[in-house]
């Protein structure tokens, strides 16, 4: 049973959502929230805004909206801040991103979007090779950047009159960095900041600054950022919730729905070939092999964890898995992802599944950012800190406690999320056993 300690405190006052990166995802989120507030658009895809939760038995008919069940910050109480190495405000950046219709969704809120100007970024081109930033913090001292970011956070909170803040990394994918010695303890990591160590990427400085200021942090990209032991130690020490990494939007979302089906029905897998074309700035950044490697690692691990070849060697020991991302400018943000899946059934007969997902990257990502921000704020008000595994639902490479494998199956993740909300509010967990509808003596049976 939950103790009083975890009862969520009410969401009073303003919530500031701080976004490192004011690109396609961020501007689509910001515009969407403002359009929804003005009744000019619907927040489709957001579980916090549209989802319901079943409480009690199926016969009770209790299905409140999640936002009525748990105390979440209201859309009207949200304010936005951002950093970006490009100086364009949210209006210009939204136009550049080319996600939203200029006349229907950008011009009507032009003034609002223009009011969001990016703060100078902690940016170093060695970590995102394809970008050249001009709106950047001076010098190269990592300690000075971390201090300046902390100062930005405090100033923003003061100027906007925020009661609480959360930060969600929506910046570009940085080059691949494997966790090393300096990432193992907070002490080693802080020393590395002071020594301007190469393995301290800018995204880690944002995460560090946030946690030092007691601000919950989620990482929407596949780079490490907050996903290493030193940061988890800091999150625990300062009592701050964290989540990461890499928004689960297009192809991986489909993968984490289809592959559990194969395993549930004991169908074998010979190969899964995934390829994408996309032409936004994210696609351009991922055209650099070092940034792509970070993404590839994140996308590849999903199948191994879901299919568990060690438990089902006959079905999944040798499947071939390939993921490709191709930068193709004509498509802009309208990504197309193809999957060719070679499966095997009764008596080893081969079959195939083909998926062609014509999606819109940022349209799928924006509601995830909103939900992560609102749920992290809830976690913080509920005295939850460290890794929030119940938010894996939104992420391609979920962070977990040491020694635990990540749960990738979307519907297990959804159950974990909803059961966490039930737990926080002192409601019964739903196990889906359901025998009580059929057996009179099920309570007695449970007792023996
Ligand atoms: N859209 C999706 O479906 C999706 C899914 C999973 C992950 N992501 C990740 O989300 C991130 C954002 O995606 P996007 O489509 O908005 O990309 P984008 O290129 O449009 O925007 C990223 C922004 O981050 C800025 N940036 C880079 N380094 C920075 C730094 N050090 N500090 C502050 N800003 C910095 C860039 O200048 C750019 O404006 C990317 O890392 C992407 O891989 C997106």
UniProtKB/TrEMBL annotation:
<keyword id="KW-0413">Isomerase</keyword>
<dbReference type="Pfam" id="PF01658">
    <property type="entry name" value="Inos-1-P_synth"/>
</dbReference>
<dbReference type="Pfam" id="PF07994">
    <property type="entry name" value="NAD_binding_5"/>
</dbReference>
<dbReference type="InterPro" id="IPR002587">
    <property type="entry name" value="Myo-inos-1-P_Synthase"/>
</dbReference>
<protein>
    <submittedName>
        <fullName>Inositol-1-phosphate synthase</fullName>
        <ecNumber>5.5.1.4</ecNumber>
    </submittedName>
</protein>
<comment type="similarity">
    <text>Belongs to the myo-inositol 1-phosphate synthase family.</text>
</comment>
<dbReference type="GO" id="GO:0006021">
    <property type="term" value="P:inositol biosynthetic process"/>
</dbReference>
<feature type="domain" description="Myo-inositol-1-phosphate synthase GAPDH-like">
    <location>
        <begin position="250"/>
        <end position="362"/>
    </location>
</feature>
<dbReference type="GO" id="GO:0004512">
    <property type="term" value="F:inositol-3-phosphate synthase activity"/>
</dbReference>
<dbReference type="InterPro" id="IPR013021">
    <property type="entry name" value="Myo-inos-1-P_Synthase_GAPDH"/>
</dbReference>
<dbReference type="InterPro" id="IPR036291">
    <property type="entry name" value="NAD(P)-bd_dom_sf"/>
</dbReference>
<dbReference type="GO" id="GO:0008654">
    <property type="term" value="P:phospholipid biosynthetic process"/>
</dbReference>
